[in-house]
Structures are given as C-alpha cells and as structure tokens.
Write a structure and sequence with these properties.
This protein is about 80% helix and about 0% strand. It has about 140 residues and is mostly helical. The protein has one domain (about 10-120). The chain is globular, with a radius of gyration of 16 Å. The termini are far apart. Keywords: Membrane, Protein transport, Transmembrane, Transmembrane helix, Transport. It is found in: Membrane. This is Vesicle transport protein. It comes from Colius striatus (Speckled mousebird).
Length: about 140
C-alpha cells in the first residue's frame, strides 16, 4: 500500500503535490537565471531538468507512483513519455559528455514542448484543440 496514493490523506497528497510542483517551477526558474553566469550552462541544464522531473513527480502524490507510471505508458501517452524522457537525458548528455551549449538549450526547449504535449494528454480534447489551432494558423 506504500505505493498507493490512497494511503495518504487527501490534504497530505495535495500539500506534497504543491510542494513538488512549486519546487519544480523554482528549479526551472533558478536554472534559467543561472544560464547567464559564466559556465552556467551546466547548472541551467541540471536545474531545468530537475525542475521538470519534480513537476512530473508531483503528480505521483495525486495518483500514486504505480498508477502514474501506468498512465505515463498508456498508448495515447507512450510516444510523448518516451520523447520527454529522451530529452531529459539528452539535455544532461549535451552538457556533461558532449559539452555542447547550444544543444543543451535546444534540448531544454524540446523538453518543455514534450512535457507540455504529455501534460495535454490528461485534458480531454486538449491535444486536438492545439493541433486544430496550429493547423489553422498555417
């Protein structure tokens, strides 16, 4: 039952969701601020990636980790999940192994887009609305 969200009270689940989500936003903002320091690209990539992981982990407190993982890998989210996780890893590879600042920034942008697309899958018809909006603009 430890991996089930129902073992925590509703108030506790909401509180920890908010803490993780706010910590995620704070890490992302801090990472962005650190980008402008000399050699701040590594800190930027790490904090930005940690921010996205914390924001993603926050929903574990609402759903429970097992249910969260099952939902992440449902067919309608599978590609978005894989792409999102791939860009999280690629961001860190770009700064620590390849030492490519431009790639790190690009991967952070793609991280955000992938995370947004993944998140939209939880809102009924949201992806369809986004596709329709962009297709009408083009």
């Amino acid at each position: 039952k430890v991996l089930d969200a129902s073992t925590l009270s509703f108030g506790t689940r909401i509180r920890w969701f908010a803490i993780c989500f706010i910590a995620g936003i704070a890490c992302s903002v801090l990472g962005t601020a650190l980008l402008w320091l000399p050699k701040g690209i590594k800190l930027f990539a790490v904090f930005y990636t940690l921010g996205n992981i914390a924001a993603l982990a926050s929903t574990c407190f609402l759903m429970g980790p097992v249910k969260q993982l099952k939902a992440m890998f449902e067919p309608k989210r599978l590609i978005a999940t894989i792409v999102m996780l791939l860009f999280l890893v690629l961001t860190l590879c770009a700064v620590f192994w390849w030492n490519k600042k431009g790639l790190a920034v690009l991967f952070c942008i793609l991280q955000s887009l992938a995370m947004t697309w993944y998140s939209l899958s939880y809102i009924p018809f949201a992806r369809d609305a986004v596709i329709k909006c962009f297709s009408s603009c083009l």
